[in-house]
Request: fold
Amino acid sequence: MDIIKQIENIKQDLDVQLSKVDNLKALNDLRTKYLGRKGIIQQLSEGISELSIKEKKEFGRHLNQFKELAIAKINKIQDKLNEEELNKKLSSEAIDVTLPGTKVDTGHSHPITKVIEEIELLFISMGYDVVEGPEVETDLYNFELLNLPKGHPARDAQDSFYINDEMLLRTQTSPVQIRTMLANKDKTPIRIICPGKVYRRDEDATHTHQFTQIEGLVVDKNISVAHLKGTLELLARKLFGKDRTIRFRPSYFPFTEPSFEVDVSCFKCSGEGCSLCKHTGWLEILGSGMVHPNVLRACGYDPEVYTGFAFGMGVERTAMLKYGITDIRDIYINDLRFLDNFNYIDGGDINES
Ligand code: DAH
Reply:
């Protein structure tokens, strides 16, 4: 039967064309060409009416077989092309999660801020308030009420920037003691620390005209040197390590009596003697003393009833010791190569960091 031969030929044609198909669009065109509503198979089936019943049956069977075969072959190639396309997409969009990420620079606190915050946290935990005072201060608060009357020789130790006869840039945070006592009248207890900027006409590798101090003041009944010593020992251990000891050396400050210079045992050599502590085994960290009766009296506190202790420390000096900084000016130049050394320091115990 001619028509069956014809189907065989068409089948071969389809195979040839399918072997050349390499994309879904071409495959779809072929599908339409063979299986579409006006496609080859449909056209063949339209010729069926001219056949005898027997031929119809025979032809119908062949045509159906061919149709099913064509559908199966086309679908198989479609599956293959779909898979190839998916693989191509997967490999071109692949993400290597093991590749290193892009480093994002994050900011961090300045080393001076870190030291201040570390000290603040310690004192807040002991019930102190953190207070601030103005940087432009009166001669009265910066000196006179601190028992440094005009012409007092101890004023020489603090070369000052005067704005006029009565106003100056504060040379120390001690006037905040006065402000706090005056504001509290004779209320006790007073427990404050005061961080802030101070100004002196001074500049070299270990001094700048502007620097930072933290002042401490406690006023109450029965406050003694023992309280001062215990407090400063805690401070020294927080800053320089839990094995540190402190020692008091007699000193002179007009606003305290007695006055002490406080040293901490060297955290680098543990007191053996090294270049950091200039072979003394001790590092000077702050000035302190019992609040002078004249100061208490001037601020409305009866020195027969109340006593107090005070201390003052340089934050830059503390940071220099703690972090091994040799030139104070590095702290203020704001060179990121310097500052980034403090990125990972979060103000903890120096022996634990
Ligand atoms: N104000 C002093 C200074 O700048 C430091 C100081 C010493 C503060 C003894 C105090 C203190 O409160 O009791 O040198």
